[in-house]
UniProtKB/TrEMBL annotation:
Domain DUF4183: 33-114
Name this protein carries in UniProt: DUF4183 domain-containing protein
Organism: Mesobacillus subterraneus
Domain of life: Bacteria
InterPro entries, sorted: DUF4183 (IPR025237)
Length: 127
């Protein structure tokens, strides 16, 4: 019998589920914020979908999350916002109103949307 090349046959398949974890926080402005100024909102000033107070803003998962800011229902450019996770006096949203832009009026709605992803993968190996 002739010599043969013996090799290992292995197959593998990986399934990855991307699981978003969205959170929405709401605020209604209590005063005008003029162009060139910054609207700062503490974590405790936000309320949740059910109307209850927010105790802390969630951390953003590194390279696997994002946040959006809507003012009066309009999605805002990311560069105007600074998001800081944490509890009262630490967690906040700061929105820099561009100079030369419009004033944010009193009683304007602000919605903060935070989305973290928790991907989970399973690999099946057969030999």
């Amino acid at each position: 019998m002739a010599l043969q090349l013996m090799k290992l046959l292995v197959t593998a398949s990986t399934t990855t589920n991307v699981v978003p974890s969205p959170a929405k926080f709401f605020y209604v402005t209590t005063a005008e914020t003029a162009a060139g100024s910054t609207l700062s909102i503490d974590a405790a000033s936000f309320f949740q979908d059910d109307g209850s107070a927010v105790t802390a803003l969630p951390a953003l998962t590194s390279n696997n999350s994002y946040f959006n800011v809507y003012i009066n229902g309009i999605l805002q450019q990311q560069g105007n916002s600074t998001y800081t996770p944490g509890a009262t006096a630490v967690g906040s949203l700061a929105f820099a109103v561009p100079a030369g832009g419009s004033t944010i009026l009193q009683n304007t709605s602000v919605v903060l949307q935070v989305v973290n992803y928790a991907p989970a993968s399973t690999t099946t190996v057969a030999s």
